[in-house]
Amino acid sequence: MNLHQFFSIMRARSGLAGLILLATLALALAWVVLRPPTYVARAPVLVDVRTDPVGATPLQGMVSPGYISTQIDIVKSDRVAARVVEMLPADQEPMLRLREDAGKKPSPQQWLVHAIQRQLEVKPARESNIINIAWSGRSPAEAARVANAFAQAYLDTNLNLKTAPARRYAEWFDQQVGAARERLEQAQTKLSAFQEKAGIISSSEQGDYETARLSELSAQLMTAQSRRRSGGGETSSEVLQSPLVNNMRADVAKLEAKVQEASATMGPNHPKMQQMEAELRSMRGRLAGESSRLGSAAAVSSQASANRVRELQDAITAQKARVLATNKQRGELNVLQREVDSAQKAFETVSASAAQSRLQSLSTQSNVLFLGSAVEPIEPSGPTPLQAMLVALGGGLLLGMAGALLAELANRRVRSVEDLEMVTHLPILGIVPAPKARIAPMRLANSQRRLALTPQRSLA
């Protein structure tokens, strides 16, 4: 179809196209006149990203789109809508009108919830954490009232979603605190009873004392054994280590050397020789007496050392048994002490969690903030009457042309030379213009030119 054919069809079907256009304009005019005005009020709320001091998980920067989508679904939920139905006054619009309609329904409360949700629109602001809660009403006051009710119901629901689980956790933790306290008391009772029975206050102090006592006895035993090995008589260590005996031995050795030196020049009957020998015998007698005295004392000491060794060995044996018993008691005491420490740690952990949950359950703030109340809109929403009529005019023109084309396709007519050629598939030999013809032959020259170049065919 070329442009000439299109205009031919429009000219022939102008009546139908005009009727469709007028019908569209009439419907648009009726819609403008009869449509009740709709006012949209918006209440913005902010999803805060700061750390909750009560203990909620902190959010950093922009919250995730999934979190914002979750909050939008909460606003649109039946729980929030039911809360709005409870908050709105029953003697004011829209509840006054909706309750009258709800009385005819099988489930009035559920119908009210769905009815008030139909005019709700929740959208997030672009690249921010703000959610706009909008509601469409028949009057500015009604729209603002319901939008504010939705925002407040959303804040209450969000806070309840935060505190309700915390209250349940607090109750559960309180039960666990009681059980942990009972376990701690039982462990402490067992520890105290064992300490009283064993007579141990501290495992480390008792064990260190017994071990130190064993080391001390071992050291004493070694000393006593060394004294015992020294023996008695003149060969005892006391005699050999005595300064007096050692000095006397040195004097005897010196005098013996003098006597031996003097014997080379003097005979045994020489007075001086006899004097020196008498002095030597005297010194040897004193040395023997002192050595005998010290040897007797060493023998007595050696006997005492032997007795002391036996006593110390018995004491060490008893002390070893005491250390082993103490170590066993220390092990049992350490086990009981670890049970007490574990019960104490569990009690402190559960108590801290219970305190945290209890604090969260008493919270009156959430991470959603009310930025401001919805104000009554000044102008109704939607297109103005002029905009509606212009849209209807454009739509009517399109519908009129579409209707004319559909009517032409349903009842095809020959309206031009091109239509006749297309129908007969034959060349046009000539055109006889009708009197007062409305459509002039427009492409006769081209048709004659094609006739001259095309072989003639019979029209029979």
Per CATH, which architecture of the largest domain?
2-Layer Sandwich
Helical run tally: 14
Specify the overall morphology. Answer: rod-shaped
Structure classification: mainly alpha
Instruction: Count the E strands.
Output: 4
The percent range for strand residues is 5-15%
Termini separation (Å)? 29 Å
Unreliable sequence segments? 437-460
CATH topology of the largest domain: Bacterial polysaccharide co-polymerase-like
Average pLDDT value?
A: 78
- Spell out the helices and strands N to C: HHEHHHHEEHHHHHEHHH
Largest β-sheet summary = 4 strands, antiparallel
Short overview:
The protein has helices at about 5-10, 15-35, 65-75, 80-85, 95-100, 110-120, 140-200, 205-230, 235-240, 245-260, 270-360, 385-410, 415-425, 445-455, and strands at about 40-45, 120-125, 130-135, 370. By secondary structure, it is mainly alpha-helical.
